[in-house]
Protein 1
Amino acid sequence: MIEEKGILFILSGPSGVGKGTVRKELFNRKPDLKYSISMTTRNRRTGETDGIDYFYKSKEEFEELVEQGQLLEYAKYVNNYYGTPRAYVEETLAAGHDVFLEIEVQGALQVKENFPEGVFIFLFPPSLVELKNRIVNRGTETTELVLNRLKEARKEIEMMDAYDYVVVNDQVELAVSKVQSIIQSEHLKRERIEKQYKKLLEDEME
Amino acid sequence: MIEEKGILFILSGPSGVGKGTVRKELFNRKPDLKYSISMTTRNRRTGETDGIDYFYKSKEEFEELVEQGQLLEYAKYVNNYYGTPRAYVEETLAAGHDVFLEIEVQGALQVKENFPEGVFIFLFPPSLVELKNRIVNRGTETTELVLNRLKEARKEIEMMDAYDYVVVNDQVELAVSKVQSIIQSEHLKRERIEKQYKKLLEDEME
């Protein structure tokens, strides 16, 4: 048998592009993927479980882990830290499971620095006009915020350089199928499996 | 709209691995692919059409084209030349269609030299034991030939280095789906489409 390590897939893209929707539909299809569990300093809410919803840490513990390089990325929102713990990702990959991370562009770029062997997928809006409409329709933003978001999106799209793949989110179903193709074909890359195959060959020829 | 050039996909692998079966099943699924049309010096048979079944050339014409670098690969069988004309491939790609070529390993390595931007897929036998059985069951080989084929297969498998992807042909349906994933995900590679996207962005922002 061929034993293979898992692959870390990172789905990212500008705000409003529909990352969460694509991720939900992908997981509805029951793929052979583990969702990356985040670490946070915010309080555990009723119904949440440590190690399932989040890994809960104190601010001091979190900062110590950051210091030790134990976070693939992190950010502070509303006085709490949120981040991706390296240990969970590495242990899951070593056990042969793929890990899937859906994240903002800034976070993805941090992951790229700390874990360049990940496969980075950029979710692209069908057009910036539609991106604008989507943000407006969320109804949670003022016009000024929308304009700032657009400006930000422009910068984020220029960050496409750091990614391996680009998927247009024109239809969610189609975008999810494309992400699934990327996941499957990455496992077929020669450089990933060459060593295992050469070993298989040696065993057969003896 | 984003205009994209087609991609040349090369399916290859050791003899007996089932390249032809995978190619037939792939085309049964009506993919958006043009099959590469070969050039030959053998006589046109009843029912065959020039430019559909083959491009038919005289020996002199063929050798002239080889001289001019107009063949991506070629070989001589039973006193006739067979090869892949560069012009047909390049014109088809320029028109935005993918081209699919199923070919022996030696031919694939020639294509790799002459057209390195192709995507090279290596079809791998589930095991060399099964490869041996398949060759025997074809019933067209003597034992000595089988042993030679196996020796050759070993060499061919070591040629895997030249390929981008490796697909195990344990089940034809599964192998075909994997090839389809590779075709789809290659179109999603960032470096292929970055320029077009940046242009799209500029148009939208004006």
Note: The interface with chain B takes residues 122, 124, 127-129, 154, 157-158, 160-161, 163-167, 177-178, 180-182, 184-186, 188-190, 193-194, 197-198, 200-201, 204-205 of chain A (CB under 8 Å).
Protein 2
Amino acid sequence: MGWRGILGFDYGIVQAPLGPDISGPELVAAVANAGAIAILRAPDWECPDYLRELIRKTKSLTNKPFGVGIVMAFPHKHNLKCVLEEKVAILQLYWGQVTEDIVFQAHQAGVKVVPQIGSVEEAKHAVDAGVDAIIVQGHEAGGHVIGQEALVALVPRVVDLIGSRGIPVIAAGGIVDERGYVAALALGAQGVCLGTRFVATEESYAHPEYKKKLVEMSNTEYTNIYGRARWPGAPHRVLKTPFFLEWRNLPDHENEASQPVIGRSTIHGMEKEIPRFAGTIPNKTTTGDIESMVMYAGEGVGLIEDILPAAQVVKRLVEGAQNLIQQRFTSSV
Amino acid sequence: MGWRGILGFDYGIVQAPLGPDISGPELVAAVANAGAIAILRAPDWECPDYLRELIRKTKSLTNKPFGVGIVMAFPHKHNLKCVLEEKVAILQLYWGQVTEDIVFQAHQAGVKVVPQIGSVEEAKHAVDAGVDAIIVQGHEAGGHVIGQEALVALVPRVVDLIGSRGIPVIAAGGIVDERGYVAALALGAQGVCLGTRFVATEESYAHPEYKKKLVEMSNTEYTNIYGRARWPGAPHRVLKTPFFLEWRNLPDHENEASQPVIGRSTIHGMEKEIPRFAGTIPNKTTTGDIESMVMYAGEGVGLIEDILPAAQVVKRLVEGAQNLIQQRFTSSV
């Protein structure tokens, strides 16, 4: 027996689509097999054939449904077409406005649409477009953060907006364990979306040094110093590494385009140079000055104390939530 | 029957000490009579005789215990002495480090010490000094905000730190209704502290125009443009009023000391001029350009839809929490 599922999945737990390659087939299959909602991350450029390979590789590792996340700020028309052709369970969308047309196309293909939004206004647009669920991102989230408010106030406002329309609200940002999960449920959410916690798993494609830092470090900052040239106007939350603390006041006119190359990486099958201040986190293939690369993390990183198998993360959340509710709420109302 | 109380009070609900005069005897007595932890706000200057009058006036309005809040960034030695002499139930402290000596003196007088902190490090200092409970302020809070992280991640970290030492943790910031209350309990807190919700009550001493704005407006910003000369380095969260939006980029070198007077107010019995960019919210006595004065609010302000009697705020929180737990958690674990 588990905690209530949503969207046809066993649980209301979503693994956020994570940076290039981090939530690849291995992590996604592990999370899907555990009964949660796992999401591949589509490349930030048009490459539908590669994306098709990613999806099919994932299908070879699990019989369970899963999703694909697309960042709408980047070219994505052909990638989107591929996702619908492959009829994955969930199309996750971020950083761009969901249209009725996209929702219509997805529904024709039997794909559910789940945008991640950061404000009440954005939630309203998404609901009006006919989406199947909404991920509400709070300011406490790691990686690129569109949310300007914290979950404790933002989730209830979105829930009040959606009212009785039966669209699940999923809370994202700073949630790591069963306490965050149950808190989100209390706020009116029906599910939670976790990023940083899933980066710190055995199956994530993150560089071991990055995973180690997630366990060791506890503090983050909301900044815009990384990836300004490639994706301007996209602030993010990062670990306060020594490199970050040295450069956090990078002048506004400066960006990665004029910086020295500090490493190399294979990203979605392509060889890439990583300049200083690139928005590219180190993955398993990355070489060079790892400690000077961006390391995204949400505010909950101080609660991460170990690298776990992804299935264990899901299990702890579900069993932990049940125990917490039992101990704290069931006995003495 | 109520939700679990803390510190000898009926409930784990704290009314934050609010700006000069806002949580005066009338509001404090109303909250105390409702069974919650009500806190007078001591003046920001030494005036123990006036403070004694405030405490005694409150005692004339309620037989229930209540507290006094002192901002340690301002002169407070004599005020503190007065609070201990008057043996109020709770000494709330903010914006300064609690010492073992203060805790010892308070305990000698039978007064419990409850600091408001904004980080895990500050929580550790407070616990080591022997305090009776800790208010953890999240970044989503209104007024002056020392918290840099959101509650969803910060509360569990403080709870983990304090562990089994039996010291209640109280969550502050963005909490307005039973959803925030139960979420805080899920995160491991034993109580909640509400500011903005209590400003928007019938008994609060806030100017009617300020209360009206709290009902009408939904968005806030974390800023430092108000009160820079009087209390430097003290950022705050405010309503995004038209005045604020016009001046939010006030240059760093500018402050209220060189600005025109835009109104007058009686604050803790003293007549004051209010210059533009003063950190002084309009209270019932204030005249002048009310719309251009600072209006503190937490991120939860979008959930406030009415001006209520303070007792009604407490009742809704308690009954709402019980119903929410019953409906959402008790039936189907």
Note: The interface with chain A takes residues 3-4, 120, 138-140, 149-157, 160, 173-177, 179-180, 182-188, 218, 298-300, 302-303, 322, 324-326, 328-330, 332-333 of chain B (CB under 8 Å).
Protein 3
Amino acid sequence: MKNLVSMKELSTDQILSILNQTKAFHDGTSSTLRNNYMVSNLFFEPSTRTKMSFEMAERKLNLEVLPFDAGFSSTLKGETLYDTVKVLESIGLDVLVIRHEQNNYFEELVGKVKPVIINGGDGTGNHPTQSLLDIYTIWQEFGTLQNKVITIVGDISHSRVARSNADALTRLGAQVRFVCPPEWQGEFEAFNNFDEVIEDSDVLMMLRVQHERHDGKTIFSKEQYHQAYGLTLEREKKMNKSAIIMHPAPFNRDVEIATELVECNRSRIFKQMENGVFVRMAVIEMILKGRE
Amino acid sequence: MKNLVSMKELSTDQILSILNQTKAFHDGTSSTLRNNYMVSNLFFEPSTRTKMSFEMAERKLNLEVLPFDAGFSSTLKGETLYDTVKVLESIGLDVLVIRHEQNNYFEELVGKVKPVIINGGDGTGNHPTQSLLDIYTIWQEFGTLQNKVITIVGDISHSRVARSNADALTRLGAQVRFVCPPEWQGEFEAFNNFDEVIEDSDVLMMLRVQHERHDGKTIFSKEQYHQAYGLTLEREKKMNKSAIIMHPAPFNRDVEIATELVECNRSRIFKQMENGVFVRMAVIEMILKGRE
Amino acid sequence: MKNLVSMKELSTDQILSILNQTKAFHDGTSSTLRNNYMVSNLFFEPSTRTKMSFEMAERKLNLEVLPFDAGFSSTLKGETLYDTVKVLESIGLDVLVIRHEQNNYFEELVGKVKPVIINGGDGTGNHPTQSLLDIYTIWQEFGTLQNKVITIVGDISHSRVARSNADALTRLGAQVRFVCPPEWQGEFEAFNNFDEVIEDSDVLMMLRVQHERHDGKTIFSKEQYHQAYGLTLEREKKMNKSAIIMHPAPFNRDVEIATELVECNRSRIFKQMENGVFVRMAVIEMILKGRE
């Protein structure tokens, strides 16, 4: 593993190694990186949680984090992403975490530049550390992914998470199902009736309704969406005893999930964010160790 | 003291403890915090001095400061402040300094989230570390607040400082008076003629004219304001020998204060900013120590 | 050297000292600064490379870097640059690196404020650390500046680099020539035909076409500029064997330089950026040492 740009490139063994290293960091193990690495987080799209989660992971690994202000950078002067990255390589950055609106932006970088590239999200494509933290959260809960029934609910066609997760979860032995309105189904097979798949699910993974990606072409009011595809108090009662609720956040209260359920016993929403820091520590440490 | 959101919650003894701890830091005492705390400064309104003053205080206490870009955060996606704070709690932040335009924004946070909440200013409400640095500056000057005559001049109805300061100064034994145009008097009793209260004041505390809060409804030109309620060269000459000038800044030269007086012998304006760093160190250290 | 605001104030001996200290840092020498200095980079104009290059230099010198967000600062409330700097002085900053659109902004600061002022670019005026890294790159290449023929090509009248470089390079013994369209010649003597000066040049220093400073009054299409004043594949073939290509960046591919030449053997473009970090370390270290 020399970079991390998508789940596709990770073998099942590599995923399991990451889970174990994540657990080690979660249990308090310290980083054993030798050098004083320099990292920068290039977020060309807004994000609180992912950017700060990476930043926390980097601080805990004792990396030096150099701020990069995408809204104030030379890309405003028309510089290509490749040239920006070459500049940062020349300046001495060892690791670049990048979020960019263009799908597969990393193809012009990987193998052509020296810094480690970690994909923090590309357009509607990949978001591998989110997938890994989702997987870790399920693994932490059940000790395995084998035969777990995971139901992903919502805006599949616009979701990075759905695409990154589906394949990896399946490879790890889980059974993945989608639930969404027919209009958002895209290339995926999906159930259109949420209620028929609740009871036998081990995980309900609610996706964010991406208002900002629908360009005003809304097909549901918030209330309508909540009734048809949201996790209501009634639906929660039908979940099986050990089943858990997940959401990549930011969530829309009373749209994807009833506000009373955000912090309920079954909810792992904030746990996911806590786990994200340790997953990112594991990924960065393992890649840098591999290069030492 | 588990958080600091307003002066109201601080007892007189607690204020005196903060003054003493501030002096200790000012005299070169080092922090004795045990842990490697993580802090972030959430400034939803512009501020150079307060944000950088907190950042400097945090660095001097050896806290790790994680940048938070309010203009680029998930609150843009409609996330509530509570949810943003829960995310930051999950990621591992120990202390959050927050400035927010909404009065009493902290009521939805205190007691409900784990990180320490320090109010860096809420709307037209509170700005407790500004009050404390004002109090410290007077205490440093005179050794006491008892019987000191403090005249607060200017835009009282829009000022956080006036509201936070008035009560606390009075509790510490000072005599507080307001001077302002009748139109800006709000709920306060005030003098409308500046000249009749200059000579017996120990402190003239000039407030910033909040152009940006008046929505164009200006009742004075800058020159008119300066003549009626500004500290002119003539007025400075009438001040008593040991009296000092204060201003929370940023100041408007030749509006609240004649440009020649900004750095005159009586001015404590830049001293206040220097003191602010030590006051913020004291507050953060005392709260974290109390939680250790 | 107590500040660094323009090349004019540096003696030839001081420039040579900086080159030697730069080489020492480049060769791996560590900083010997005693104190825990506080620095902030005040960039009122966009820049990735200069800001991050300074930030990297500061981290390598173990300075504490406090972020300053120009787009979110009190200058928005009408505060003067002098007052902002006095605030930062009061808060405890030791070094301020400033980029500002106003030519000679530093005249209201130098000698009047305590922090070290390092000019990161003023309007169309000076950019001394860029000049120094250009000089270092040539010195590194040829071991001397004596008798080197340096041809600066492009947008001279809008370029900080041309103005800062010309005099210093000449003082160090180089022969400096300009090439530009007559319309952009400004006060400089210049060749208007690029082709007649290629063969005997040791350095072709291509300048960025400052689209954003021409206010739409473009006199060339990109293709026309490239053909007349750009470094094309044909022109590169006419360069003498040991000659090198430089560009301060960000570059416009296929305008100032053919895209295939950006990373060719003769190109020192990314080398310049690498060198910039060591030059800035040298400047900051030497100024702070001089004050210790």
Note: Chain B has two domains: 7-126+273-291, 128-268.
Protein 4
Amino acid sequence: MLKDLLFPRGVAVIAGSKKGIELAKVVNRSLKHSYFLGEYSEEVVRQAFKCFDGVILIMSFSGAVRVVCKYSTKKGEDPAVVAVDSSGKFAIPVVNSHWGGNELASLVANSVGGSAILNTQAEEVGIRPLEHLAKLLYAKFEDVGKLAKVYSHVLDGGILCAENFDPPSGFDYVVTRGNCSFTVKLGRGCKEDELCLIPYELFVGVGLKDEARDIEDRVPGILAQYGVPLSRVKGIASIKERAKSVADKLNLPFRLFSVDELNSLDHDCLSPPSDKLREEGIRGVAEASALMMAGKGARLLLRKVKAHDLTVAVAGVVDV
Amino acid sequence: MLKDLLFPRGVAVIAGSKKGIELAKVVNRSLKHSYFLGEYSEEVVRQAFKCFDGVILIMSFSGAVRVVCKYSTKKGEDPAVVAVDSSGKFAIPVVNSHWGGNELASLVANSVGGSAILNTQAEEVGIRPLEHLAKLLYAKFEDVGKLAKVYSHVLDGGILCAENFDPPSGFDYVVTRGNCSFTVKLGRGCKEDELCLIPYELFVGVGLKDEARDIEDRVPGILAQYGVPLSRVKGIASIKERAKSVADKLNLPFRLFSVDELNSLDHDCLSPPSDKLREEGIRGVAEASALMMAGKGARLLLRKVKAHDLTVAVAGVVDV
């Protein structure tokens, strides 16, 4: 379960060549929240790097390294990239292994019967990497450059204090109170011995079929399942008036969008619409309405989750 | 032996952090023609990428990927880069695995008791990569971009014809005569179904101690040992008049340089001088005189080889 929480924007699977297509399909079927984007092309890779939390490239590592060098931007912005050779023997985190790459390599190796080649220090020492906190808390490091310093503190056996959040499971070296020489803080305004995680302001988009019932309980339930902190949700949006019941229950503002408004949204990372939506001429509901309510600079944070007759997505904004 | 021929400019070993220094020293001691350049710094890495045929980075794979993205230039120019985690568990070719990276990873893994993680197509199919030809023939592909096309031909079971050279051992799919749909040619002026390897013009620098004897036989012997084609050597250079005997034996021009001339050479890739040379105020003899005779645009091709009382180095020039 925790592993899913590292990839709320989903995982893209790309075949480096025709030879890799079969394996790509196998990997895609075995993972939750994965999307087979097809064979390698400039456009496919660019979209994968921009819009997903994980990218699986079915190609040699050194081929994958060339791809990463071409398309990666910077630590914390790029997805975790895993290379799997076309025979499925090895899965290797190519970049951002601390941002979920190690976990993704393990998941893929399990699914194809290969070996995950993990070799980062955090993994050697057996600690959960700090980068996971940013994902789990729906927040962004104010200064990623500070991480190296904090790591050497931790690898020397140091303890970190958590401020304004409860450490998720697996972070034994992060405590809520104690004698710490370094503090990880959910919030702004960090001193030198503090590492700030700036929280995103969150907006939830909801798509509904007419038969959907109990949505005021089910939507918060889905959000909780993906670790979305309800206390940080600033609004609910939809194209269906009925979704207001979710906002009312959570005591939050509600925005109703028209189909035309949603279709006017220009955003690269929207999931492909379902056949039904396409027929109705709608490009997307949950993701589009969340992004639209979040406003300028919004980032898709939780790709749409489908639960039978409803869909939920989360967008967020943050100034760093 | 053949493995050495892939790294005539030597292999640089770099420790990613203090933690990696011990392992870096172990790796360095176990390899022939390796140089421990010290702990990671901009300058050290830049020199390693520019001046060596192989670079071993003692750091996580994803760390090494960041380094490669920053310092690599292009295929065929960069060294083969291998990442070894600081516990020595895995040796992974990061980039240019066909340019010796796979072999280097195997050598390192053997030396530290770890596993080499190899996953390129040529390795899977069990053929020796074409890129080795460029190294073994002291030549440069006219158009590296054509390699992918030739590979798919070979991986489909195709046979290549060799023109103007004898295929070195291990290239069963390259034949000197036969019904080939593609030709690898040592020379210039290639048609569409030909892959050209432009030969370097070679210049040999010789350093001598006073007691060195039989140099007119020993120098050609050393060159042959490193696969340097004597027929392509265009000249011999030294600061010692006695080295002319080598030129005379091979019927080649000889250039005598003064210490001042050699010291005026501005070239990034010279090996550090021996203590004795340093005492005498000489920056280098074999490499410097070879580069100087080769002239403008010369590239160091064989880093100085020491054989008791003499040193030999090769520089080359080519227009591509």
Note: The interface with chain B takes residues 60-62, 65-66, 68-69, 72, 85-87, 89-90, 92-98, 101, 117, 119-121, 124 of chain A (CB under 8 Å).
